Amino acid sequence: MRMLTDGPRTFAQHNAERGFVPWQRFAGRAALIDEVVASGLRGRGGGGFPTGLKLRAVTGRRPVVVANGCEGEPDSRKDHVLLSRSPHLVLDGMLVACHAIGAAEAVLCVHAGSPLLAGLIRALADRGPDANRIRIVEVPRRYVASEESALVNFLGTGDARPTTTPPRPTERGVDGRPTLVDNVETLAHLAIVARVSAEAFRADETTLVTTATGVHEVPVTTRLADLVTGPVLAGGYGGVWLSAARTGELTVAEAPGVAVFRTPQGCGLRETAGILAYLAAESARQCGPCMFGLPAIAGDFAELAAGVPGRALERLRRRLPVVTGRGACAHPDGAVRMASSALDVFTADVTAHATGVGCTSTHRRTA
C-alpha cells in the first residue's frame, strides 16, 4: 500500500480507498506492538530506530503521542508532501500509536505559519469525534526546534530548545509524562502496518525521498545511484557526504539519516561552508560547542573554501574532533560529522584550496 495519493481525500474517500483500520485485530496493546515489531518498521525522522521497540518503551501513566511534521531539514520536502496529499493516513497513524501506548492525547506539530495548517484543520474536522484527541500545535521555525527533545520542551514550557538526555521522552516527556515522538512518515507507515499485516508491509515497503527533482515514493530496496549521482550529501545538513563510489553501493534504506539527498552545484567545499554557516547561526546557543565551536569551524571552512592563504585546514583538523560529543544536544555533532565527511570526500578540492591552486571541482547537480 502506497502512502502518497494524487491529492487530498475526504475522510470517507480515504477509508473507501484504503479500508478502515481493523481495530478488532488489536484488542490489546501487546498484539499491535508485536505486529509492528514483526514488520521491521524503522523511524523515518533520521534516527532509524525500530518503531515497535520505541512503542514498547513507552510505559507509565497518561502517555502522549507527538507527531513531528516540522521538517527542520531545509532540503527536505517529504513530510510537507505527505501531509498535503495524505493527511488522513498520518492521522490514522497517530490514533494507531495512541492505541499502542494507551494515550488519550496526541499532538501534531508543524512550523508556525505553515501552509499545511488550513488543510490539516479541515482534515481533523472531517473526521468528527474520531479526531477529538488530536490537536495541532505550531512550532517556531528554527532548525533545532524540531529535534525530539526540543519539541517535548516546547510543548511543556514554550521553550523550543533541545534538552540533555537521558531521560528520553519515552521516559519523561511532555509535562513529565511518557511521550512517543515520531516523524509523520513513520506514523503513516504505522497506519499501513495496522491495515495490511507485518508480512505484507515487508513485501512492499516504501519510503519517501527528497532529491533535486522533488519528492518520490520508492521501494526501500531502490539503489541510491538510481536516484542521484555522487558525490551526494545524504541525511540532511547533519548527515554525511558520500563519494560517487559509495553512492553506488547503497540502497535508500541503507543511506544515513533522513532520506534527503543533495548533489553539489559546483564546489563541494563552498557548499559545505554555506551549510556550516547556517548551522552555526541556527544553534540553540546553550553550550560551548554551539556558541563557540560551530562559529569557529564555520569560519575555518569558509577560509578554506575561499582559498585564503593560512592555516584553516590545520585548525579544522584540530577542532573537529574536540567538538564531537561535548554539546548539550546532537546539533554540533551533526555539523562536525558533515564537515569531516566533506574533507574526506572532496580530497582533491581540499588540497587545491589549501595550497592556493584554485578549485578543481566539476560537480554539478544531476539528480
TrEMBL record:
GO terms, biological process: cellular respiration
Domain NADH-ubiquinone oxidoreductase 51kDa subunit iron-sulphur binding: 275-353
Location of region: Disordered: 156-176
Residue intervals of the NADH-ubiquinone oxidoreductase 51kDa subunit FMN-binding domain: 38-190
CC cofactor: FMN; [4Fe-4S] cluster
InterPro entries: ComplexI_51kDa_subunit, Nuo51_FMN-bd, Nuo51_FMN-bd_sf, Nuop51_4Fe4S-bd, Nuop51_4Fe4S-bd_sf
Keyword terms of this UniProt record: 4Fe-4S, Flavoprotein, FMN, Iron, Iron-sulfur, Metal-binding, Ubiquinone
A GO term for molecular function: 4 iron, 4 sulfur cluster binding
Pfam families: Complex1_51K, NADH_4Fe-4S
PANTHER family registered for this protein in UniProt: NADH DEHYDROGENASE [UBIQUINONE] FLAVOPROTEIN 1, MITOCHONDRIAL (PTHR11780:SF10), NADH-UBIQUINONE OXIDOREDUCTASE FLAVOPROTEIN 1 NDUFV1 (PTHR11780)
Family, as annotated: Belongs to the complex I 51 kDa subunit family.
Protein name from the UniProt record: NADH:ubiquinone oxidoreductase subunit F (NADH-binding)
